[in-house]
Amino acid sequence: MKGSRVWSPIVGVVAFLYFVVPLVATAEFSVQEGPSHPFWAAYSSILSSPQFWSSLRLSLFMAVSAVVIGLVIIVPATYWAFLRAPRLQTWVEFISIMPFVVPPIVLVLGLVHLYGNGFGPLSSRPIMLMAAYGVISMPYLFRSVNNGLRSMDVRSLTEAALSLGSSWPRVLFQVVFPNLRTALLGGTFLVFALIMGEYAMSSMLGLNTFGVYMLLTGETRAHAAAALALISLALVWFLVGVMQAVNRGNVTIGGAR
Amino acid sequence: MAFLDIKDVHRQFGNQKAVDGVTIFVERGEFISLLGPSGSGKTTLLRIIAGFEYPDSGSIVVDGEDLTRTPPQRRNMGMVFQSYALFPNMTAADNVAFGLRTRHVPSAQIVPRVAELLTLVGLSEKTGRYPHQLSGGEQQRVALARALAPNPRVLLLDEPLSALDAKIRVTLRAEIRRIQRTLGITTLYVTHDQEEALAMSDRVVVFNQGRAVQIGHPEDIYDRPANAFVSSFVGSTNRLHVQVIDAASGTCAIAGQTLHVDELPAGVAEGTLVDLWLRPERIHVVDPDAPAGSNRLQGIVEDTMFLGASSGVRLSIGDQSVMVDVPRDSNRPTPVIGGAISIDFSSAVTATMGDPL
Amino acid sequence: MPNAPTATTVSPMRRANHIWANSVWFLPLGIFALLFLLLPSIGLFIGSVTGGPHGVTLSYFGQLFQNQYLDAYKVSIELSATTAIVGAAAGVALAWAVVGGGLPGFLRPFFLTFSGVASNFAGIPLAFAFTASLGPVGLVTLFLSNHIGLNLYKHGFSLFGFTGLAITYLYFQIPLMVLLMVPALDHLKQWGEAASNLGANSWQFWWHIGLPILRLPLLGATLLLFGNSFGAYATAYALTSGMINLVPIVIGQELSGNVVFSPNLADALAVGMIVIMITVFAVYLITNRNEARWQR
Questions:
Q1: What's the whole-model pTM score?
Q2: What is the per-residue pLDDT for C265?
Q3: CATH class of C61-295
Q4: In this complex, do C204 and B102 lie within 8 Å of one another by their Cβ atoms?
């Protein structure tokens, strides 16, 4: 296409400006605490703040829990439906992508209204948040497990293992999971990236996650907020980078909006 | 000057030389195959001719007109893509008509032209079908008709049969050749299938690592390969390491037996190793006491296999093994595994320096 | 007759075992989805039609049509539609610039990785980044007023209103569109070459081939973008301090107890969001199914 050679550079330059300028501005802002401060003042104040580390720990803990919950509920169902109960495949997929139609704020509202007024352990807010994060992880993990199963011909692998005299646990732990690992890593890192910056649900549940800490910082210390934004971008960049390295070319949808 | 001149074309991707100084002169109406393994630069050259890539240096000249920098839509070259690239939103007839519509041919002329081409490729019954309603072979025919419809100066085919199964491939390659002869259109055909290239072409260009290593008639390529690569890539072949005993007379030795080679590589010294390239069907199994032909070697039968029209015999001469094609002949007993066997071959054999492939 | 059927009949006992063995694999997902997805959603629905003095009532849904709430839906839908359509157009243009060969090929891997990052770079840090660039003392704002003499805020622009929010949302909408469309555009490239080989110019290619082929994928991706921004909360909240009238923000006000109104009304607002999301997603699924007809 001859035309595309003419306007492509224009599109490229405009896009470059739109996507890079906010990052440059943030970086610039983060090192301008004031004339009496060194340029790293904002960063050192964040890194020496106990709230920063405790919020990061909480988010990390929540992310790990969500991934574990997600794997435990998604992997067996997807695997078994794929292998032995194809009629249930549609249902597993349907349930797994349902969280897409329930916005996070709506999910929290539902959880709080249902369990908030005492329902044993379910009324505990950390547990509610963990469950909510588990729900958000479902579509991403389903997609990566499903892609993984499709790409590795799991049926033949399972049948080969069984015909060689393997037991079911051995099939799962020595044949299926090792081969699914790459696909699972992709989904796992994406869920991690989403949860590390999540704000809406944790703030509604009154838990001081990393996202909540960022917002509170932003309300009082603008330069530190800019520094935090860059730190969190670096975190997402790292996680997505790892994800794309292990999981080439998979489309990702969503984010901690 | 020929009809299509490809002159010293270079193209580099990163630090890989995809096309490294290729020159081919194609006569009007000629059918030329570009043959080579994947990554040898043949497809890149075809895309340069079509205008999808530009060469770093060199030129493409058609009928005296330099097209090197002309955009593809103004080159008037018909191309058949490996994936066919049929427009999925158009019927077979609309696909064929597309190139005429872009040239603003009046519709009164488009309709008969489309019908003519679809008849030519044997699809007159399926004009209204969408690509996904056609079989692979039928899609291939539509792609050919589409490329031919605007009367292109040159027809370019990029591995057009590689996605089809063996039977259809053989039928279609005969048909492509028939159509090409009917129209007398200058054609470049990219393939990695040596059988296809030899069967269809007026001339074959063998590619290796971005270079055209041999250009010639199919018989030349097969019988007189220019080097070790061509010899091993085109057809099946035996590679025999022999030691030069006397360079002047062409006498060589293998496992204590001597043989004679008409033409040794220039400048070989006594005692060096050279490679002989022998086609399995050019080696004859003979009676041990028959009068000697050009070259006579003794070996031990290792294995025999039934190949339909002939038998394959694998024999060992010293520590080297040789494959021989033996026509099935009821008068001759089948060689016995472990038995002695005598073979005979001409001294007009390709010999190269003992270089690794 | 006597022994024929026995070979194929499964005893009731074995069948029960079979069903049990099957269900073990599905129980974790089933129980979890029931407890934390289905029951809460059903709870919202029940809450939205009860709680009045007279048992079942539609009065809360009725209230959705009052000015404030109707306006929240209107702004939410307008914002999502605007960012979806603009994001889709810009995303396709950008993706084609890279995929279609208009920009150098070595940019592609970098560009795709960046899209993966940017489509997940949202919420609080994104709001900060745009405040640092387009806020009242942002880098771009100051550059424009000091060097070009254009004072954005004097001309009525505010980062903290609809336009500012839309510009910010595009930061994750455009890359998402890019990621969604790159596979389809990669596919389209072969037809682009075929068309130019047959003498078509850019317009002829897009009009006769590109748009007809991409119509459904484009529609589907645009709908996903709509859903993507419709449920967004964090970016809007951080940027406007919760001052913009979007449905998620209104629901958030009830949840955090900042503004006192009936929980049942919040339930009704939430059910309204789910209904819109289901509609969008259903249309997306239908378009995707039809797409399979051409693209095998």
A1: 0.79
A2: 87
A3: mainly alpha
A4: yes
